[in-house]
Amino acid sequence: MKKKLLPIFLVSCLSLILLGIKVYPKLSTTLENTFNDKDTSTEVQGKQGNDPTKNNIQHRNKLLSVTFPFETKEREKFAKEHADQFNIVKKMYYSWDYIRNVQGEFEWGDPGGETFYNKFYVDFIKKKNHAKNERLKKGKVIETQNLLFKDNVAILQMPKKGIFTKKSIEEYKGGSAEAFEADYLGAFNRMVTNSEWFTLIYDDYKNWTYKEGEKFGIPVYEIKGEIPKNKSNSLTGPFTMVVSKRTGVLLDLKCYGDGNNIKFFVTARNIEINKGIKNDVFNLDVSGNKEVSNLNSVGDHAVENKSGGVKTD
């Protein structure tokens, strides 16, 4: 399924794709190709009167511009004419500003092909992220990766192969310190915590509507509409989206094809926002694993652990 690139792939979105190229080559391919148990989510509202998007101060994701990056005056004017809808877009774009910490899990992908399962804990104040990413085919896990990011060090592990990489800002080839931090804080959680799928509703306000409601125990925007071909050839058709009203976290996305069949989905579960995360969560045991320079070229530059592992706590 070939996907026409969405009009605006901003730097924050590309960070996840770049990480996917390094970590999961098929992750980036899936994004390009596509672009219940009872769910429970809880959320605590952030501090009032501290909205960086209104005060023109630097955002928590330092890669984002201070003001929303309209490409043209026409798009800015169109957004002002549909201010309520644009505010949802803006909330999703700057969502990290409203999240101190978040934990949960989500699944995403093509129901007829590969899907991914992610479980994550991320603290944007303490700058820590612990996540698991499973790649599945026909419901069977075919690859697993674990991530730990803290103290400006990122460890990526493939437990079934017994290998891991360890990278610091000095070894980072993706750019600046800000890019390093944004990449790994958002790794394996960004699809919901700072979702690139805001692009489906940006600058297309006449093709969707919303209503406010409560879902998963929190106030949400329930969005419903049509994706036109100029947004995405592969996802053209009806869609629904559920977004946290307070934080912009993506809680659900379904894109439908012929016969009302789901052709792409993102489903979050057990999301807890700004409830606090225990510090002992941010550990990863790589004892007995082998350190390599690249998880995708195992054996090329393998380095035996001198002490049987790396202490990460």
Could you walk me through the main structural features you see in this protein, from its secondary elements to its overall organization?
This protein has 313 residues and is α+β, with helices and mostly antiparallel strands. The chain has helices at residues 11-23, 25-34, 52-55, 73-81, 83-93, 177-185, 190-193, and strands spanning 42-43, 101-109, 114-123, 128-137, 140-150, 153-158, 163-168, 208-215, 218-227, 237-244, 250-256, 262-273, 290-291. Strand 4 (128-137) and strand 5 (140-150) form a beta hairpin. Mean pLDDT is 82; it is low at 1-40 and 298-313.
Per-chain topology:
Blueprint lengths: L10 H13 L1 H10 L7 E2 L8 H4 L17 H9 L1 H11 L7 E9 L4 E10 L4 E10 L2 E11 L2 E6 L4 E6 L8 H9 L4 H4 L14 E8 L2 E10 L9 E8 L5 E7 L5 E12 L16 E2 L22
Parallel strand pairs: 1-12, 7-13
Antiparallel strand pairs: 2-3, 2-12, 3-4, 4-5, 5-6, 6-7, 8-9, 9-10, 10-11, 11-12
Helix pairs in contact: 1-2, 1-6
Number of DSSP helices? 7
Largest sheet: 13 strands, mixed
Multimerization state: single chain
Percent helix among the residues? Answer: 10-25%
Short characterization:
The protein contains seven helices and 13 strands. The protein has 313 residues and is α+β, with helices and mostly antiparallel strands. A hairpin with a 4-residue loop joins strand 3 and strand 4 (128-137).
Brief descriptors of the model:
disordered C terminus, 7 helices, alpha+beta, 313 residues, outer membrane lipoprotein receptor (LolB), chain A, disordered N terminus, 13 strands
